[in-house]
């Protein structure tokens, strides 16, 4: 059980303010088919954002751990099909819950997204599902104030869960709601812990890492908002994060994922990773560097 003092800290820190989130039209790069028309260098930057930072690393920095998951172009295209609705593959908001006895009894694989308030969870979910016309991504009227567990069903393939943000103005029952879900949800196959790439790992994020470790969760750290701030700051924040993953975690996937929900960088790669860990995508090349473990 995660210690109460740490949960208090998860609720205690102010967060950066964000612009209100409203319904938006699909991003012009939402489809990989559209993105594939871009020049090769630009396309690679969208598919694998780390490639644009790699040249700036010092010679002694470990590079391999930043690009362990390397799906092929075919893998990425096949993964995208999972995020496109059809008459037999409905994708939409399903339900919300504030307690475990309200959580839907869905048996398919589940992934959840958790992070500091205003880290960009809802924006990321919108980007992932931007090929779904009119999808209802539930956010509160005040940005960063999600108070419930919001469930999005992706056909019979998997379910995605948007968690309340920790830190400033987290729900009073945050501990009971979130800890109970993370500890008891047997269908949960991966937790995505979002960290603001423009400011780096904060104290409340470090506590969230500790929470995932103590609960024994398989989790992944995603750096959001990589288009904000300078490249130097992003690189410093990424290296700091990689050091924490390398030295202080056991259940964290070694590779942090970099995303920008506005520029669409890293979205195709993250779609592919989600499809893979939920058991819906077998990679074409078994020799793909650091192929993630299969989901049993």
TrEMBL record:
Keywords: GTP-binding, Magnesium, Metal-binding, Nucleotide-binding. The keyword Metal-binding applies. It comes from the Eukaryota. PROSITE patterns: G_ENGB (PS51706). Coiled coil: none annotated. Residues 107-280 form the EngB-type G domain. InterPro entries: EngB_GTPase, G_ENGB_dom, GTP-bd, GTP-bd_ribosome_bio_YsxC, P-loop_NTPase. Its cofactor is Mg(2+). The keyword Flavoprotein does not apply. GO terms for cellular component: mitochondrion. GO terms for molecular function: GTP binding; metal ion binding. PANTHER family: GTP-BINDING PROTEIN 8. Belongs to the TRAFAC class TrmE-Era-EngA-EngB-Septin-like GTPase superfamily. EngB GTPase family. This is GTP-binding protein 8.
């Amino acid at each position: 059980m995660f210690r109460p003092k740490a949960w208090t800290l998860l609720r205690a820190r102010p967060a950066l303010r964000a612009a209100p989130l409203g319904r938006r039209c699909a991003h012009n790069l939402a489809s990989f088919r559209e993105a594939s028309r871009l020049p090769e260098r630009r396309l690679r930057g969208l598919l694998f954002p780390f490639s644009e930072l790699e040249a700036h690393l010092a010679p002694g920095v470990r590079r391999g751990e930043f690009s362990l998951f390397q799906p092929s172009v075919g893998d990425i295209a096949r993964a995208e099909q999972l995020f496109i609705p059809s008459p037999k593959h409905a994708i939409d908001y399903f339900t919300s819950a504030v307690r475990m006895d309200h959580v839907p009894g869905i048996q398919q694989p589940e992934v959840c997204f958790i992070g500091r308030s205003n880290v960009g969870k809802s924006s990321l979910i919108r980007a992932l599902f931007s090929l779904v016309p009119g999808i209802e991504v539930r956010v509160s009227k005040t940005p960063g104030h999600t108070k419930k567990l919001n469930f999005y069903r992706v056909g019979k393939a998997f379910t995605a869960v948007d968690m309340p943000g920790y830190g400033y103005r987290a729900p009073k029952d945050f501990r009971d709601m979130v800890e109970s879900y993370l500890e008891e949800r047997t269908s949960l196959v991966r937790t995505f812990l979002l960290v603001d790439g423009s400011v780096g790992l904060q104290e409340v994020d470090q506590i969230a890492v500790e929470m995932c470790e103590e609960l024994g969760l398989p989790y992944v750290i995603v750096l959001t908002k990589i288009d904000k701030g300078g490249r130097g700051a992003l690189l410093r924040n990424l290296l700091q994060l990689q050091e924490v993953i390398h030295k202080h975690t056991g259940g964290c996937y070694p590779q942090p994922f970099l995303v920008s929900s506005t520029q669409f960088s890293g979205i195709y790669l993250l779609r592919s990773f989600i499809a893979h860990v939920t058991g819906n995508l077998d990679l074409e090349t078994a020799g793909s560097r650091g192929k993630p473990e299969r989901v049993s």
